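Quick one:
INPUT:
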């Protein structure tokens, strides 16, 4: 079988590895993992037990940096970590210094950048992009083609519908003043964003706040309010039966 497994890599019990897979030095892989074809796991990456990694996945990728980029690369980025019982779809790219908890589903074509921390039991949908310096809690759902900008925080039990766009730069790449104001979005626990909505930099969606489909959020969304339109304005309260506290067992 055509593989490269460095002699320093540590593989657990009954690990299955596909064709053309590359496992670099000091990688640690737990027990009962299933690794597909053409997978690359970079140096030092740590994979938990019972993890499924589909074809063409890259784990521990080093970031690129343009001379014009505001993000300057630092030395000695920590290895990527993937928790036990995660499922990682085909063509996913997970960067170095990314820490992923347990029982997450990361669907085909998703990208998770460096300096990202993700909790447990999240769903990261097909072609979702999670940029750097993002913190994500537990039991969130990000649907197809959602974009989570750098410097964002997503707490627990949040929902992000398909094609949602978030942003962190009010200056649109002009004026050096922008370097002082980069800020992603904040989603408090139980908040939700509807399909094709746009959230402007630094905006906070409070707990149970709900953004309607197609809305453009230019100011913070109050707790348990539904906002609609462009610019988004409060329409009404979130119905009682839709509040997070009444749905934790579902």
């Amino acid at each position: 079988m055509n593989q490269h497994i460095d002699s320093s890599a540590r593989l657990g019990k009954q690990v299955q590895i596909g064709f053309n897979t590359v496992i670099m030095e000091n990688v640690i892989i737990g027990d009962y993992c299933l690794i597909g074809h053409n997978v690359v796991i970079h140096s030092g990456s740590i994979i938990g037990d019972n993890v499924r990694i589909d074809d063409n996945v890259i784990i521990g990728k080093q970031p690129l940096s343009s001379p014009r980029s505001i993000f300057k690369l630092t030395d000695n980025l920590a290895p990527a970590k993937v928790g036990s019982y995660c499922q990682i779809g085909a063509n996913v790219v997970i960067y170095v210094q990314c820490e992923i908890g347990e029982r997450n589903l990361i669907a085909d074509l998703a990208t998770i950048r460096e300096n990202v921390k993700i909790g447990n039991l999240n769903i990261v949908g097909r072609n979702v992009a999670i940029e750097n310096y993002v913190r994500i809690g537990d039991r969130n759902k990000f649907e197809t083609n959602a974009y989570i900008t750098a410097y964002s925080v997503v707490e627990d039990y949040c929902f992000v519908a398909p094609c949602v766009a978030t942003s962190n730069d009010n200056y649109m790449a002009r004026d050096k003043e922008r370097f002082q104001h980069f800020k992603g979005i904040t989603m408090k626990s139980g908040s939700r964003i509807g399909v094709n909505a746009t959230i402007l930099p630094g905006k906070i969606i409070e707990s149970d706040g709900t953004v309607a489909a197609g809305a453009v959020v230019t100011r913070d969304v109050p707790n348990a309010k539904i906002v609609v339109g462009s610019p988004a304005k409060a329409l009404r309260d979130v119905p009682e039966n839709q509040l997070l506290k009444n749905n934790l067992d579902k």
